[in-house]
Write a structure and sequence with these properties.
alpha/beta, about 675 residues, about 20% strand, six-stranded mixed β-sheet
Length: about 675
Amino acid sequence: MSLVTLTDLSKTHGAQHLFAGVDLQITAGRRIAIVGPNGAGKTTLLEMITGEQDADSGTVTRAKDVVIGYLRQEVAESKGRSVVAEVIAGAGEVSGIGRRMGHIERELEEASEDAELEELMAEYGRLQDRFQALGGYSLDAEARRILAGLGFAEGDVERDIGEFSGGWMMRMALARLLLQNPDVLLLDEPTNHLDLASVEWLQGFLADYAGAIVLVSHDRDFIDAVVNRVAELNHGRLTEYTGDYGDFVEQREERIAQLERQALTQGRKIAQVERFIERFRYKASKARSVQSRIKQLDRMERVVVPTEHTKSVKFRFPQPPRSGRTVITLADIHKSYGDNVVYDALDLQLERGQKVALIGPNGAGKSTLLKILAGVLPFESGTRELGSNVRVAYFAQHQIEALDPSNTVMEELASVGARLTSVEQRKLLGAFLFTGDTVDKKVGVLSGGEQTRLALAKLMADPANLLCLDEPTNHLDIASRDVLEDALNAFPGTIVLITHDRYLIRSVANVIVEVNGGTATPYVGDFEYYAAKRGLDIEQRGATEGRATPRGVEVVAPKPRESASDAARRKRSQAEERNRRYRRTRDLRAALDRAAHEAEQTDAELAEVTALLADASVYADGARVRDLIERHNAALDRASSLVEERARLARELEAAESEALVSTG
């Protein structure tokens, strides 16, 4: 059954023709990625599915009672309630029922007349049945589970939403949408504000999602993990392919080759007809035949081969001056924000030619470290030393804020490229698709992708040999990301990069620096090397051992042979430590069993009280009803507390067992 059907849609914005003849069918279980260049109309198409925009022609048919949820690229800021309350508020009907039940509970406390009490109790019973059927009693726990998956710490979910940045507001909007569980889930660039761990979690969540998904994303890894169809919106047409992004690329090449063959055949036929028309155009005896062939050409639907490559950023970074071997050294860096200590005694050294990806959870200090490396953020103590002939360029994460909206494109570039002539400035902007009159457009009216391209052009205006890049691919389409990837690979200097695009990390980085817990640990190798090393829980042993350093793998000599008495003391100490860990895991298992047993008892009591409240005869006794409601609310609070307690105990047990495994490995 089709949930939403698009038929022959067309849309034009002013003088810009977006698309025509768009057909798409969205059914349950179908997961569609809409791809294409910036400005092709992908977001417009999503808004037509929701009904927020109307098509110039064509129809959008939605199934009866279908629920459509839409995650936009930007969300409005708000405040006044907690994170978890904001997420639960998106649950629609069930959230409204819960609020009404709370109102009735307060009214019951003030009710004095039997008739009023009976009426309130009857309404409460009806609402409670509906609330339970919609899964309302598990809503809070599910909201907290989703928020945890998207990177919210346990203590953050009760904070006011107004305390969070725009990126975290986007995560709240996503959590709210996932809890709503709509029939059709529309996601516009959902990974833009997520760290790698949250992207992995979201992929797993969507893998089990029962509804339909329509996704706009430029993250190829994410597309491959989520979708089973790709629809390319390009040159005003939507073409659908079965499979993931890799399948799409292969099938598109086959389709283009087939269209080229058809166009060649059609071209020969058209040329033949045109020769006939030209030969007999002025011969009266052939007038009818000529007119017939002219009409034949007019009716013929021409085969269009999409051979025009999508415009994208085509550039190479200018050759920077050659730096010394050691590019930058951080020694004993201390950095804090008020009472929050981000780094204490941090050491890091980078060398010429290294292409470093900083990875780690949000809030771990990646952007702080990048800013310290770039020299744009002061620190309390320690030293930052640049190597010989090192010049630094910094690409900030939020370039929209860094650009002056009142400037024209040309004026914005000239603010950093004063040493370039006007011709050189125009040539540089042309490489970033700003040609003709577009250089006179105000920065404030540029799209997100255009602003990103302008910021990259500014970066190029003054060549540097240490590039510090914070999310450079945000708002760039896949074709432009490919070109950026090629440029970074060809760049002869040193790069430090923060990105959530795993494809870019795998393609470019030859050093991974893991940022977490106030440390920055280098892994000299690509992303697969890092993943393999981090997947090892037991210590590597052998005649020699190695550890990653900024200069490569440092070989460490084997430890000297220990004496018999030292060996005995070591073994005794290890045995005592194993016993302590055993007692610790035993106590944790017992506590987890007790919590599970108590949860079963609480669930049983909740079911019993719910059944009693569903019995109409109970409402004749007002005092008993009040007692049942109090028991019901207490059981709900206890159940919620036990969910958190069991999750905490499970985490502690897992950590203790892992520690025991390492020690016995």
